[in-house]
UniProtKB/TrEMBL annotation:
L-aspartate binds at R233, H464, R505. It is an enzyme of class 6 (ligase). Keywords: Aminoacyl-tRNA synthetase, ATP-binding, Cytoplasm, Ligase, Nucleotide-binding, Protein biosynthesis. Its EC number is 6.1.1.23. Signal peptide: none annotated. This is Aspartate--tRNA(Asp/Asn) ligase. The record marks H37 as: Important for tRNA non-discrimination. GO terms for biological process: aspartyl-tRNA aminoacylation. It comes from Enhygromyxa salina. ATP binds at R233, D234, E235, Q242, E498, G550, V551, D552, R553. The keyword Ligase applies. The gene is aspS. GO terms for molecular function: aspartate-tRNA ligase activity; aspartate-tRNA(Asn) ligase activity; ATP binding; nucleic acid binding. It comes from the Bacteria.
């Protein structure tokens, strides 16, 4: 008699329905739970597609029933039997509405135990109710990945890749590969380095993006390129960052922003329709960088709710309130009457402490006032502002009796960072998105970013990268006033998350020279970092542009996961460690010698102590 493996699985554990009643089926999977009810054993059998209740009875097959006595969670088994309607003892239908297969059960007459399982370190059957510490889940990631909620995430992610490849191919894009090990160029994101055994003392860098290579594809005449590719950055980590990440990389020749937008919007429409069954309206809304910062304090604003910012800088000049008069920017937001009265002094003090936190932007303080009947201000800053100015500010901010006004006065970056943090904090604390039905999907293009920004030393650096094209009408400002130059750059934002960024590239040698000059690059530095690209650009480069979309972030948002680690199969911790494989690990001396590397002991190691977490 053939084994069940030889017969083969006929259905997944999520397939069977009442229409299959009376048929036979072979199922493979893992024991999610086992229950012994009065001489019959019930097992919920689980695979990646779902769960089916299977039943063992001594009257059906005594051997199978006897073997089922020893079944425990996570045993891997195969079963064969007849599909029956789930009924009570009196024949009344007894469907389980919480299971897609809940109207049927499989009565087992053939059973095969593939392998036993030790007691798992956490209860996989709890799934979304699981309260196990994440570090333990990451240590046993292969078990964590059995949880249905995570498997749904990865099924969605897999389909996202398949649909993207099909859609981009239909649009005429070629899927082309670029190298992972590339030339190391100082500056920008910190690279991971790979020593070259065949070239002693030399190193590759793991590519932080395919940027230069996809531009070279345009020079080579492959006018439509895409790739779903891995990228690597040695950055400090948090919930929305990993040292290795995946992006949908796109570039096309003879491009305008409109052509890029058209291709990417069509991809988003396809993904949301095919994966979520949601129709996304187009064209996507657009805001310039200046508009986004002015209204929301962020270049990736969440536009699903109000609480927009008001610029009060001009109104408060000469107002006599030193906090406002001495600041380059004074801006505020108005908490409307339905929420304002709920914020007493205790909550305002907590909000002030939140605004002062470094991760919130580090405000010196948070000024406030409450609008009473007749438009009179009470509390906070009220005594420092004249009645006439109170009226003007209230009108500017759209305040009504019962409103709470919140103000930040500081430099540009601090003012906007803090007010954006407060705005998002209030969104969550007040549940401003709760009760709105299905998840609203607010796509937004943010355009016209500054081409340059100041670094800590006060020097100009590229806001994106040095090959981003300035607006045509701003080219002359490159020499005279770089701070006013706007880029032909754009980000795609979804519900307050940046999911993609790109630009039209520079293809004219004279414009590129002016950008390098504004950045203070020497000829030697240009050649060391970008010599091969600049050489390629001597041979008729086409106008071109593109974008990169974050696959991890897209997957996280579409699956409504809590963090990127829930959509990356084997993620790293915030210290860049893989708890399952226990890496990174030291290399032994023979390995290092083969790579012409010598290990120098850290101070604590020399003293016989473990190195500090911050030491490298």
């Amino acid at each position: 008699m053939p084994t069940l493996l030889e017969i083969g699985r006929t259905h997944t554990c999520g397939d069977l329905r009442l229409s299959d009643e009376g048929e036979r089926a072979v199922l493979f999977g893992w024991v999610n739970s086992r229950r012994d009810h009065g001489g019959r054993i019930f097992v919920d059998l689980r695979d990646r597609e779902g769960m089916t209740q299977v039943v063992f009875g001594p009257d059906v097959d005594a051997d199978a029933y006897e073997a089922a006595q020893a079944l425990r969670s996570e045993h891997c088994i195969g079963v064969c039997g007849k599909i029956l309607r789930r009924v009570d003892n009196d024949g009344t239908p007894n469907a389980n509405p919480n299971m897609a297969t809940g109207e049927i059960e499989l009565e087992v007459d053939v059973f095969e135990l593939f392998s036993k399982a030790e007691t798992p370190p956490f209860d996989i059957s709890k799934d979304e109710r699981l309260d196990t510490h994440e570090n333990l889940r990451l240590q046993y990631r292969y078990l964590d990945l059995r949880r249905p909620s995570l498997q749904r995430n990865f099924i969605l992610r897999s389909r996202l890749g398949t649909i993207t490849r099909a859609h981009m191919s239909e649009l005429g894009f070629l899927e082309l590969e670029t190298p992972y090990m590339v030339k190391y160029t100082p500056g920008g994101a910190r690279n991971f380095l790979v020593p070259s055994r065949l070239n002693p003392g030399c190193f590759y860098a793991l590519a932080e993006s395919p940027q230069i290579f996809k531009q070279l594809f345009m020079v080579s005449g492959f006018d439509k390129y895409f790739q779903i590719t891995r990228c690597f950055r040695d950055e400090d980590l948090r919930n929305d960052r990993q040292p290795e990440f995946t992006q949908i990389d796109v570039e096309l020749s003879f491009a305008t922003p409109e052509l890029v937008f058209e291709a990417i919007e069509s991809l988003m429409i396809r993904l949301w329709k095919d994966l979520l069954g949601v129709e996304i309206p187009t064209p996507f809304r657009r805001l310039t960088w200046a508009q986004a910062m002015a209204r929301y304090g962020s270049d990736k604003p969440d536009t699903r709710f109000g609480l927009e910012l008001s610029d009060l800088t001009a109104l408060t000049r000469g107002c006599g309130f030193a906090v406002f008069e001495g600041a380059p920017y004074v801006k505020g937001l108005c908490l409307p009457p339905e929420h304002g009265p709920g914020y007493g002094r205790g909550k305002i003090d907590k909000l002030t402490a939140f605004a002062k936190k470094r991760e919130s932007g580090g405000a010196k303080g948070l000024a406030w006032a409450r609008v009473e009947d007749g438009g009179i201000w009470q509390g906070g800053s009220a005594k420092f502002i004249s009645a006439e100015l109170q009226t003007k500010i209230s009108a500017e901010m759209g305040a009504e009796p019962g409103s709470l006004l919140l103000f930040v006065a500081d430099d540009f970056e601090t003012t906007h960072t803090v007010l954006n943090a407060i705005r998002l904090h209030l969104r969550d604390e007040l549940g401003l998105l709760a009760g709105s039905g299905p998840t609203p999907w607010n796509f937004l293009w943010v355009t016209d970013f500054p081409l340059f920004e100041r670094n800590r030393d006060g020097n100009w650096v590229s806001s994106h990268h040095p090959f981003t094209s300035p607006r045509d009408e701003h080219v002359e400002l490159l020499s005279s006033d770089p701070g006013k130059v706007l880029a032909r750059a754009y980000d795609l934002v979804l519900n307050g998350n940046e999911i993609g960024g790109g630009s039209i590239r520079i293809h004219q040698a004279d414009v590129q020279a002016k950008v390098f000059e504004a950045l203070g690059m020497s000829e030697a530095e240009k050649q060391a970092k970008f010599g091969f690209l600049l050489d390629a650009f001597k041979y008729g480069p086409p106008p071109h542009g593109g974008i990169a979309l974050g696959v991890d972030r897209l997957s996280m948002l579409m699956s409504e996961a809590d963090s990127l680690r829930d959509v990356i199969a084997f993620p790293k911790t915030q210290k860049g460690q893989d708890l399952m494989t226990q890496c990174p690990t030291p290399a032994d001396e023979p390995q290092l010698a083969e790579l012409f590397i010598r290990h120098r002991a850290l101070p604590n190691e020399a003293a016989g102590q473990a190195p500090d977490a911050g030491e490298t």
